[in-house]
Amino acid sequence: MKKVTLSGLAAAVALMGAAQFAQAADGEISFEGTIVNSTCAIEVGNGTGGAKGVVKLGDQVPVSSLAKAGDVAGGGAFTLQVNASDPGCDITGKAATVTFLPITGSAGAAGQWLALEPVAGAASNVAVQLRDFRGTELPVSEPSAEYANLSQPLRFTANYIATGTATPGPANAKAQFTVNIQ
Q1: According to the UniProt entry, where is the signal peptide (predicted)?
Q2: Residues 6+ apart with CB under 8 A from 18
Q3: Is 17 within the bounds of a domain?
Q4: Average pLDDT of the chain?
Q5: Residue 45 within any structural domain of the chain
Q6: Residue 4 lies in a domain
Q7: In this predicted structure, what is the pLDDT of residue 86?
Q8: Domain limits at 57?
């Protein structure tokens, strides 16, 4: 009788162990981030000011000026100014690149432009193109050329660009920006 009980107990323990292993799952999780010294406030210029500035590309841009893919119309200049007076913001001898990330989506064959907000009656076949201080196209989600003098405003322009024959309507786009000071 004792042999049966011990062998029964051994079998029960073996089954419980097997059940435990059957419930286990292997997986992996990554946590990523960057620890930085501090952040510097950035001010948007030539718009309405503040971190959520507005850059006017034209109140009344004629649809005829965006008749075929590649046509450019409207436009406005804007700046990003690093506020070095913030405590812990040291820009001495440093340079920066700027990356614009689309909030309203991207447009263009390579996704290089900002898509317009998808609102009722919005213009179609139109996107917003960004350019850096050299006048070179700055594709969204890619870092700009290096800005070497951070005590001066970081200069950009934006304009409408046709992706086909444009239709009229509101033509607004939104982007986040990151200034990477090195």
Answers
A1: 1-24
A2: none
A3: no
A4: 85
A5: yes
A6: no
A7: 81
A8: 41-181
Structure tokens at 156: 């950009």
For residues 91-103, average pLDDT: 95
Q: Which residues contact 49 (CB under 8 A, 6 or more apart)?
A: 43
Contacts with 83 (C-beta within 8 Å, 6 or more apart), sequence order: 40, 41, 42, 43, 89
pLDDT digits (tens, 9 = 90+) for 110-125: 999 999 999 999 999 9
Rg of the chain, C-alpha, whole Å: 28
CA dist., res. 107 & res. 113, Å (int): 5
Q: Residue 154 falls within a domain, yes or no?
A: yes
Q: Which of 11-15, 20-24, 43-47, 60-64 holds the top average pLDDT? A: 60-64
For the chain, count helices (H), then strands (E): 1, 8
For residues 7 and 1, what is the distance between their CA atoms, to the nearest angstrom?
A: 10
CATH number for position 72: 2.60.40.1090
What is the DSSP secondary structure assignment for residue 23, as one 8-state letter?
H
* Distance of alpha carbon 127 from alpha carbon 109, whole angstroms: 11
pLDDT higher for 54 or 108? 108
Give me the pLDDT at residue 25, please: 66
How many domains does the chain divide into? 1
CA dihedral over 67, 69, 72, 75, signed as positive or negative: positive
